[in-house]
Amino acid sequence: MKATLYHASINVSNVKFYKDLLAYLNFKTVATYEWGFGATDGAVSLWVFKVHPDYNKYHFHRKAVGINHFAFRVSSRATVDSFHQAYLLANHIPVLYGGPAEHPEYEPGYYAVYFEDPDRLKLEVVYKPGQ
After folding, report:
1. Tell me, what DSSP letter sits at residue 85?
2. 97 contacts: CB under 8 Å, gap ≥ 6
3. First and final CA of the chain: distance in angstroms?
4. Residue 68 to residues 11, 15, 27, 61: CA-CA distances in angstroms?
5. Cβ atoms < 10 Å from Cβ of 90
6. Which residue ranges in the chain fall short of pLDDT 50?
7. 34-42 long-range CB contacts below 8 Å, 24 or more apart?
8. Rounded to whole angstroms, how far apart are CA atoms 17 and 75?
9. Following CA atoms 16, 113, 26, 79 in sequence, which dihedral angle do they give, to the nearest 10 degrees?
10. What is the pLDDT of residue 65?
């Protein structure tokens, strides 16, 4: 049996952070609710919801059981660099690990910039040659 990832859903403290980020990455909003939204790149959708106040006392840690990070793939190294300058730095979003860099330890040509959302979920914009 073959399957593909259809969607992921996350609960966050700052829905606007994701609304802005996904719009910048050309995701199309497919549904909007008072408590969140869903957006798609045409293949996979991400559903983002405001965490219920009863659960706001729990904090995310990427080393615990659960999601470690999300990676958004782009078409070139220049796009990674542009995203770093025009989006992350322009919006004062802290960048992890010193900024865009090649990561041959993952695979040849792997080039990425890492950052965190307001809840400290690690996010990545990556260029990977091929496919």
Report:
1. I
2. 114
3. 21
4. 14, 19, 21, 8
5. 9
6. none
7. 38/7
8. 23
9. 150
10. 80
> What is the per-residue pLDDT for 61?
85
Q: What global pTM score does this model have?
A: 0.92
Summarised one tens digit per residue, pLDDT across range 75-109 is 999 999 999 999 999 999 999 999 999 999 999 99
**Nearest alpha carbon to residue 93 among 72, 73, 122, 66:** 122
* Alpha carbon of residue 74 to chain centroid: 12
Contacts of 70 (CB under 8 A, 6+ apart): 8, 46, 121, 122, 123, 124
Of the candidates 83, 82, 71, which has an alpha carbon nearest to the alpha carbon of residue 107?
A: 71
Side-by-side strand order, sheet with 28-33: 7-12, 45-50, 36-40, 28-33
CB distance 107 to 49 below 8 Å: no
Return the exposure string of 19-39: e unless at least 16 CB atoms fall within 10 Å of the residue's CB, then b.
Answer: bebbeeeebeeeeeeeebbbb
